[in-house]
Amino acid sequence: MNKEELSLEEQVERIRKKRAGRHDSTKVRAILNALFLVLAAIGLAMYFFGGKNHMPALVVIAIGMVFKVIEFVLRLL
After folding, report:
1. Of 21 and 52, which is predicted with more confidence?
2. What is the pLDDT of residue 6?
3. Residues 67, 41: Cα–Cα separation, whole Å
4. N or C: which end of the chain has fewer CB within 10 A?
5. Alpha helices in the chain (DSSP H)
6. Those residues with Cβ within 8 angstroms of residue 3's Cβ, 6 or more apart along the chain or in another chain
7. pLDDT for residue 31 is more than 60
8. Distance between CA atoms of residues 32 and 38, nearest Å
9. What is the C-alpha radius of gyration for the chain, rounded to an integer number of angstroms?
10. Of the candidates 54, 58, 56, 61, the residue with the CA atom closest to the CA atom of residue 40
11. What is the pTM of this model?
12. Helix 55-76 and helix 26-49, axial crossing angle in degrees, nearest 10
């Protein structure tokens, strides 16, 4: 039993060392995610409370989606 726990601890330590070598993009991802949420909320408000022309609202939402895709790509790296 002790060997299994030690083996698990060694695996966890190996993963930590591997992650430490990578660039930590947590703060950048959080900022990009916040930008997406703000732009999505603004776009939805523009869509529902704006006039009959929904194109500006859709553009704002699309810009927010670009930030979300960038955040997603950073999560994969």
Report:
1. 52
2. 67
3. 14
4. N
5. 2-21, 26-49, 55-76
6. none
7. yes
8. 10
9. 21
10. 61
11. 0.69
12. 160
Position 62: which residue type?
A: A
Cβ-based neighbours of 42, under 8 Å, separated by 6 or more: 60
User: What is the token pair recorded at 76?
Assistant: 């994969």
pLDDT of the residue at 1: 46
CA–CA dist 22, 32 (Å, integer): 19
* pLDDT of 10 higher than 90: no
Structure token digits, residue 49: 């409370």
Contact between residue 68 and residue 26 where contact means Cβ atoms under 8 Å apart: no
Cα 44 from Cα 38, distance rounded (Å): 10
Sequence-distant (6+) residues with CB within 8 A of 54 are: 47
Other CB atoms within 10 Å distance of the CB of residue 65: 14
pLDDT in tens, 46-72: 999 998 999 999 999 999 999 999 999
* Number of CB atoms found within 10 A of residue 60's CB: 20
